[in-house]
Amino acid sequence: MAQIRNSDIQKRILEEAKLQASVDVIPTELADKILPVLNVNPKSKKKLLYYKDWNTRNLANNGLYVPAGKKWRIVSAFLKLQTDATVTDRRVVLAMYQNDSADSQICEGVAKTIQPASKVGIYNFMKSVTDSVIADKSSYQYLAVGIPDELTIFEGGNIWDESVNIQVGDAVKWNFIIEEQDILLDAFEVKDVP
Description:
Blueprint: E1 2-3, H1 8-16, E2 20-22, E3 25-26, E4 37-39, E5 47-54, E6 63-65, E7 70-82, E8 93-97, E9 105-110, E10 120-127, E11 132-136, E12 140-147, E13 153-154, E14 158-161, E15 171-182
Parallel strand pairs: 10-12
Antiparallel strand pairs: 1-3, 2-4, 5-15, 6-14, 7-10, 7-13, 7-15, 8-9, 8-14, 11-12
């Protein structure tokens, strides 16, 4: 039986990305065609972040930014929008970008219905749901808004509240649950195996 040996690039990946290689005993005739299995370092775990009461209207910059060396997946987002008596229709929009450039937008969650003046809107942005109005009464409405299951935003990316026609007297409160993980292999080049 032959064993797979580490090449220079494999050593570099193991050392710099802090990976562990599982080397299996394999038949000699397959040794030159199979690479080691790389396992993610168990010290690099996912963690959940909770952003509570993110009021985008009180911030000079109303974006949440992915820190250096990290990547995010939105698990869910919750918005409570209480509109004042100013007569205009509001539309809730949650946008995600891969960097600060306006042309780097990768996704947008847009509420199916508009929200009028003097009403409380409860919006749940979730994976694997169809946009729908759950309840629409005279003083409140509950809505579900779908977001992609596997949407990943990398370091430098951001999440923005781009809701339309929000007024000065409107109360805007977002809550997010975000899965954060270290970026390990994005800096490595792909090379052909000899």
